[in-house]
Amino acid sequence: MKKLPSSPSILCQFLFFLLLLSRRYGNSETVSVESLPPSKGSIGIDLPTAIQKARERNSDLSLALSQHQIEEEQYRLAYRRFFPRISLGYSRTDTVIYHYPDTYNQRISLALEQEIYDRGKRMSDLRSEEKNLRLRRRLLSLQEEERSLQVVGVYLKAIDFRLQREILRRAIETAREHSRIAQTELALGEITEFDYLSILLKEKDLELEQAILQREEDQNLFELNTLLGFTDRQLIPLGRIDPTYNGFLPMDEEERFMALALQSSTDLEELAIQRDTLIHKVQQARSSYLPSLAVQVELSMEGREFPLTQPGFSIALQLSWDTPIVPFSMGIQMGKQGYYERRRGINGEAQVVENLEGLVSVPLALMNLKRNEAKYTQTIEKLRFTLKQAFSLVREKSQTLKLLREKSALLERKREVQRIKVALGEVTRLELLEGEIELFQSRSNILKAITELFLQEISILKLCGKGTFGHYPIPILPASTAIEGGS
Question: What does 378-417 look like in DSSP terms, one character per residue?
Fold first, then answer.
């Protein structure tokens, strides 16, 4: 038969129970998460300001923007390929022949060379460069948004760590209070030394957890300061996590988000640009029998001394065939020099056993095109799978958050029952402390679950190209709001 506790013990425990009830219901504890005094040299910062500072101090993005501006200027200058090449020339020739008169000749020339037809290579290259520039502009914009999302994630985790630290601090205070009471009960012989030591061990476990949490929080704050470019002072994020946050993504619009993801995928756009380039290479390989055509016009003046008195004019057509094995070219030229000299000519050149790679250029281009199409299809399937998994994780984390809240409510009711049973001697103080620690851990897990749910939703927006900061709700309440809860 269980031995009933003595009357003084019952009275002591009943008084302690009344004290706990008055503390819980008579004076509800309100703890401001911003009430902790900032350390020396630290400043508070809100999320919009943090994102603005991160963008302003992002040296990598600034350099990338400068490089992109140079590339755009190079693209505009590339249109020079369609204009004729102009060259100016001057020559002086002195000829000495024994037993004959010496000759002296000076010549000034102006030549214009224009490529008329190159099987569409210049236009194809420019179109490809234009598409690549447009893609790089998108990537730079996404890089800026990626930086913003990175700041949002680190900022939110910093608030999460601070709230967990506050919850853990209250858990340690509760454990120490139980330790003091247990010490008195041990002296009165109400509990065993084993129970007393177990309570002390619970307190030490919480202190060890506090040290680990402090290290993780310091690392997170360092990452935040690095992102924002502050090294001389520490930034303290303002606000707190909204405990009522339940997510913002509509779970019944997965197909719409799938279409947005396929439309905004930079990987698919890059593969599409490569596909257009490969299609043109196939066309070029199949049309190697077509010649490229260039025209050259030259104006000149010759004479023994200035002023030069013998005008000259010439025009030449140059055709080139880049055929396999025997690529060849030919030219036709005609012109005049002075008032009495006329000339015309034709030339040709063939290179034997050259351009052997042209024999396999068509099958190689087709194989590269098929490889690109296969990769394009695989990328679509991978994107679909990734998005489905992301939605599945959102549903899982949303359900987890719901269950954690239900569990926390049950643990709250369990703690109240345990307090009554401790006063009646039906439950040990160690069991009550374990229940209270579990409740504190449950509250901390709710904060973690809210953060994880939000970041998972942001990952979906990022896949769909809709991750622009300011276009989605953030689970952060103003800094002036206090967090309420019992000890």
Answer: HHHHHHHHHHHHHHHHHHHHHHHHHHHHHHHHHHHHHHHH
Q: Using one digit for the tens of pLDDT, what is the confidence trace for 71-114?
A: 888 888 888 888 889 999 988 888 888 877 777 888 899 999 99
Q: For residues 191 and 171, what is the distance between their CA atoms, to the nearest angstrom?
A: 22
For residues 403 and 391, give the distance between their C-alpha atoms in angstroms, rounded to a whole number: 18
Q: Which two tokens stand for residue 382?
A: 């991978």
| pTM confidence score | 0.72
Q: What is the DSSP letter of 474?
A: -
The secondary structure of residue 23, as a DSSP letter, is I
Q: Which token pair is 480?
A: 């002036």
Cβ proximity of 423 and 21 under 8 Å: no
Q: Which tokens belong to 278?
A: 């490969």
**Tokens 């506050």 -> residue:** 166
Q: Which residue has the tokens 């040296």?
A: 59
Q: 240, 477 in Cβ contact below 8 A?
A: yes
Tens of pLDDT, residue by residue over 379-410, are 999 999 999 999 999 999 999 999 999 999 99
Query: Which of 12, 18, 21 has its CA nearest to residue 186?
Result: 12
